[in-house]
Each structure stands twice: as structure tokens, then as C-alpha cells.
Amino acid sequence: MRILLTNDDGIHAEGLRVLEGIARSLSDDVWIVAPETDQSGLAHSLTLSDPLRLRKISDKHFAVRGTPTDCVIMGIRHVLKGKPDLILSGVNAGSNLADDVTYSGTIAAAIEGTIQGVRSIALSQAYRHDAEGRFIPWSVAAHHGVDLVRKLLPIALPEGTFLNVNFPACAEGEVDGLDVTTQGKTDFALVVDERQDGRGNPYFWLRFSDRKGRLMEGTDIAAVRANRISVTPLQLDLTDHAAIKNLSAALGVSR
């Protein structure tokens, strides 16, 4: 099995090393094509106005000066010159739950892999804050990732569907099982912080306000907060099929 790995945290990210360990437990034909630098929050963006730079780091390890979507395309079309059997994206430093999937470069790489006709799985590791700051329990993904991916591989999925996996922010021995979940909903707003540089010119930082996830049963948020692994099937089709009948009636369009 040929596996292509990528992420949005960059080629030197700890989560990518964790993902490589997971992949090498499944196959000895593992390739990495990942962004040269952190590309978090760029979603499913393409680099169209600048050239892409590809740097070979070592055997089967490549860095692209571009987005996660660029990396998947470069991996398939140029580095491998063909489709792999599996694309794994991550392991992201931080969860990708609920509305976060629309911003996530980790998810975007799985989206692009699915568009290219390759089974794709995005993996993310939730973190917590302690007295020393942010703590990411990578051992959870490392310990549980291999068996989980192995179980997911033979499962038949509809065309255009990929999987979003989130590991909880607990000790590896405290994981309380696994849930197949729906995409949850968070209540937050992006805040614009205005600051000044050394010459008094304004600049701005975007940051998230306090996030309050709706703990609805069966959602990805509820599972991860209960120290359970969340597996959410997501799809490329963004059509609101339930709204088609009412919309057609209101516009006088027959269906």
C-alpha cells in the first residue's frame, strides 16, 4: 500500500512525525509531501499567482512552498506521478471539530485527496492548557492511530466521502472508546486586535473569541470532551438537499 502524508503545520511539525509512525506501521511505502512552513487556517486554498517550490529533504520526504492542497496535487501529479492508495493528513496540533473544518488546512488536504479519487483521512490531536501553557498529548494519536486507521481502511465509503478523526486531550490510557459522530456546532466570533508597530503604524491580529461548543449528543465536540475518539464522515457535496423543495416552490421551479 502506497501512502501519501501531508499536513498544514509544516514539514517539521511533531504531528507529522507521529503520522509517519502510524503510516509506517501499515506500510513500508510511505511518502511525505508537506508545506515548507505553517499553513494553518488556509482551508482549501490553491497557490495560483506564485510559483511552487519543491525541496527534497530526504528519500520520499519533500517540502512544498505552498498550501496543503498544493502539496496533495504536487504529491500525486509530480512526486508520485500517480495516485497513492491512501492519503493521511495531520496529525494536526489541535482539534478540527464543528465549524473548524471549514478553516482547516488539515481537512482541506483530505478534501483534495477525495477530489483526486483517493481515500483520505484527516487526523487531529486535541490539546489542553496547563500551568506551563499548551500541552499536546501526542501519545494518544500515536498509540490509538494505528489500530484505528487499520480498522477504517476496509470500510466502504460513498464516492466523495472522507473521514475526519479527532483524538481527545487526555492520557492515552484514559481514552474511553470511539464514536462515529456528526459535525458539531461552536459559538464563537473572530476578533480583530488592532496594535501598533515601532513607528506607530497600525497592524492587526485575528484571534478566536472564547469558544463554546454545543454539547449535543452524537457530535464530534461531545465525543472529544468525553475523552472519546471522534470519527466523522464528511462529504464534498455541500448541497442542502432538504432546502431544494422549498426553494424550488418559492421560485416556481419544477423539480
Automatic annotation (TrEMBL):
Main EC class the enzyme belongs to: hydrolase
Keyword Nucleotide-binding: yes
Cofactor needs: a divalent metal cation
Keyword Transport: no
Matches recorded under Gene3D superfamilies: Survival protein SurE-like phosphatase/nucleotidase
Enzyme Commission number(s) of this protein: 3.1.3.5
Swiss-Prot/TrEMBL catalytic activity: a ribonucleoside 5'-phosphate + H2O = a ribonucleoside + phosphate
Family annotation (InterPro entries): SurE (IPR030048), SurE-like_Pase/nucleotidase (IPR002828), SurE-like_sf (IPR036523)
Keywords, in A-Z order: Cytoplasm, Hydrolase, Metal-binding, Nucleotide-binding
UniProt-annotated binding residues for a divalent metal cation: 8-9, 40, 92
Molecular function, one GO term: 3'-nucleotidase activity
Cofactor note: Binds 1 divalent metal cation per subunit.
Domain spans labelled Survival protein SurE-like phosphatase/nucleotidase: 3-187
Record's subcellular location: Cytoplasm
Pfam family, one: SurE
PANTHER family assigned to the protein according to its UniProt record, in alphabetical order: 5'-NUCLEOTIDASE SURE, 5'_3'-NUCLEOTIDASE SURE
Reported function: Nucleotidase that shows phosphatase activity on nucleoside 5'-monophosphates.
Family: Belongs to the SurE nucleotidase family.
Name of the protein in its database record: 5'-nucleotidase SurE
Organism of provenance: Rhizobium lemnae
